[in-house]
Write a structure and sequence with these properties.
This protein has 334 residues and is mostly helical. Among the domains are: 24-49; 54-136; 177-208 and 267-284. The chain has 11 helices and no strands. Residues 198-208 have a biased composition (Polar residues). It is found in: Cell projection, Filopodium; Nucleus, Nucleolus. Belongs to the SAS10 family.
């Protein structure tokens, strides 16, 4: 009985807000439907030339339309109480979302050309003080002499070559992110790194009610590296030679040494400062280490030699080894 009363209170509280949302949704759907019908009518009457449009925009708008259709279908299934497990609409939504994410860098690059074409189509021509009018034109860099010097019979050898795209490592696109979005993403990354730290894992195991799991874990990769290091050491000691190491081997050995030296940082909790509200260290841009100043011993000797030469030239003495030695000894005693 108490549960029914609680459910009735929840329904009474949420019902007015739900009714308002449904009414606003109905009004928006009606306005969008009328606007789309007007556009379809103008397109059929050939008021808009759609045959020479950008295929990129056609693909983008079709994908958005398919995405909205699948979302609407899933919402209708959820309102009827049906299960969404193994539904093909979910796989289509994931595919369309992936394609749209891949199109974002290209959309950012084509933004200037699209804005210029749309403004030209609306106004008929660009104004003289339009900022889009002052974009550099690469064709102006080609001189007229170069254009006239090429004969008609000569062909550009690079024109018939097959285009080979550059091999660039894929990176996450963040060209349309603001500074606040970057800071928020950095804070989330620091929190995730803090949750994966050894301190949090130990606290979770200590205060968890679940039974402790004990298992024998064998890391074959570490065992193989330890065995190779032992064989390498035995060979160097028996043959009295020092084997060269590759860069990967040096980095791997440095990582193994770093794992054994974690006891020195056992009382440091800087890796969980993002969870306590403190300023965490930047993961992507760590603070550079200070370089130690190395004092060269040869500077003092060269300074004494310079002073000795200057005194000899002032007194116009003949330069010999005894004079140099006596002068350097006297300077040191001073």
């Amino acid at each position: 009985m108490a549960k029914l009363c609680i459910l009735q209170d929840l329904v009474d509280n949420d019902l007015p807000a739900a009714v308002r949302l449904l009414n606003s949704l109905t009004e928006q759907v009606a306005s969008v439907t009328s606007h789309v019908r007007d556009l379809i009518k103008k397109v059929r009457e050939k008021a808009y030339q759609t045959s020479k449009g950008l295929s990129f925009l056609d693909l983008k708008y079709h994908l958005l339309l398919f995405y909205l259709q699948d979302v609407t279908h899933l919402i209708s299934l959820k309102t009827e109480g049906e299960s969404l497990k193994d539904n093909s609409a979910i796989h289509r939504l994931v595919t369309i979302r992936t394609v749209l994410e891949k199109m974002r860098p290209l959309d950012q690059k084509l933004k200037y050309q699209i804005d210029k074409l749309v403004r030209t189509a609306v106004t008929g021509s660009l104004a003289e003080n339009d900022p889009l009018h002052f974009r550099p034109n690469p064709q102006n860099l080609v001189s007229k002499d170069d254009k006239g010097g090429n004969s008609k019979g000569e062909k550009d050898p690079s024109a018939s070559r097959k285009y080979v795209p550059p091999r660039i490592a894929p990176v996450h696109y963040d060209g349309d992110m603001t500074e606040a979005d970057r800071q928020r993403e950095q804070i989330d990354k620091q929190k995730r790194a803090a949750l994966r730290s050894s301190v949090i894992q130990e606290l979770r195991q200590q205060y968890s009610d679940a039974p402790e799991e004990i298992r024998d874990r064998r890391d074959f990769q570490t065992e193989r590296e330890s065995r190779e290091e032992l064989n390498r050491k035995n060979y160097e000691e028996s043959m009295m030679v020092r084997l060269s190491m590759t860069r990967e081997q040096r980095l791997r050995k440095r990582g193994m040494v770093g794992m054994t030296s974690q006891l020195s940082n056992i009382t440091r909790f800087s890796d969980i400062s993002a969870l306590t509200g403190g300023e965490a260290q930047d993961i992507d841009n760590p603070k550079p280490k200070k370089k130690k100043k190395i004092i060269k011993k040869g500077k003092k000797k060269s300074k004494y030699l310079f002073c000795m030469l200057r005194e000899c030239f002032k007194k116009k003495k003949k330069l010999d080894t005894n004079t140099c030695f006596n002068f350097s000894v006297s300077r040191k005693h001073k």
